[in-house]
Design a protein that fits this description.
Blueprint: E1 4-7, E2 10-12, E3 18-24, E4 33-39, E5 46-52, E6 57-59, E7 69-72, E8 77-82, E9 88-98, E10 102-104, E11 108-112
Parallel strand pairs: 2-11
Antiparallel strand pairs: 1-3, 3-8, 4-5, 4-9, 5-6, 7-8, 9-10, 9-11
Length: 114
């Protein structure tokens, strides 16, 4: 089982930016998929963006252009940048790793408020 550790959450002002990172304990498989999901209060968890071992990103239409996803292979990590954040209730962003098994991080909370 791959262990995932997220970091970078917290409080940010509307219109501001935040960078989330997810470091995997291992990324030995030749083919894998890692991504970020968001769950707002009272709503289902939704995919924000993901990226494959081939380097191909995929974005939810609602965030495309604002939340770029990238990899930091030296750290076995996936980076999600949050830009032009809108005022909203605190939401939890969770990292996931997919290969032969599915792994999830513990989640990190992002609050956009003035």
């Amino acid at each position: 089982q791959v262990h995932l550790v997220e970091s970078g959450g917290g409080l940010v002002s509307p219109g501001g930016s935040m960078t989330l990172s997810c470091e995997a304990s291992e990324r030995n498989p030749n083919y894998w998929l890692m991504g970020w999901y968001r769950q707002a209060p009272g709503l289902q968890r939704k995919l924000v963006a993901d990226i494959s071992s081939m380097g191909t990103p995929m974005y939810n239409d609602s965030v495309k252009g604002r939340f770029p996803i990238s990899t930091d292979n030296a750290r076995n990590a996936v980076i999600l940048q949050l830009h032009t954040l809108k005022p909203e209730a605190p939401a939890v962003y969770s990292c996931t790793f997919h290969h032969s098994q599915e792994s999830w991080g513990q989640g990190t909370q992002v609050t956009v408020s003035s």
